[in-house]
Amino acid sequence: MIAEQKQSLRGRARGLLAEMPPVRSRLAGVSILGHMALWLEWHRAQTVCLFSPLADEPDILNPWPDGKKVLMPRVAEKELRIHAVAGPSDLAPGKFGILQPLPSTPSAPEAADFILVPGLAFDAKGGRLGRGGGFYDRLLARFEGVRVGICFNETLFEDIPREAHDAVMDFVATPDGIISCGT
Predict the structure, then answer these.
(1) How much is the pTM?
(2) N or C: fewer beta carbons within 10 Å in the chain?
(3) Where are the alpha helices (DSSP H) in 100-169?
């Protein structure tokens, strides 16, 4: 039952994302990063784990965060492994065409002050709808840090059904602001 609900919501989210012009990714990212820059907890953070956005996700890598140690995931088989990256020059297209750390970048602990998490959709209770591969659910099961879901306003849904293995966000950041999920 939940699997069918999730598939239906994935279709809805993909439809909404397909209708958005490509410039929305950049504009949404700028707004989200602006809210993050004003957030005291983010400002104090020393280590952050980011993701390389797909074309239909807010671009949270431009500009690169100043004064923070940046970690990013790299696909290894069916898992995500964390690496320390100094800047965009440490990234190259990997599996699924997603920019990821070069193999030569150092491995890093699976912990950060914050981890920014992609998804097709989120809800204000911390529910996340991923793309269906389980990569981030498996990573988040072992990752230590405040979880922040990143999405467009249009993909902040009222309710995302959850299963036991689904990771829950502490916050969701949209172009309109940062929502505490009360977790």
Answers:
(1) 0.95
(2) N
(3) 135-140
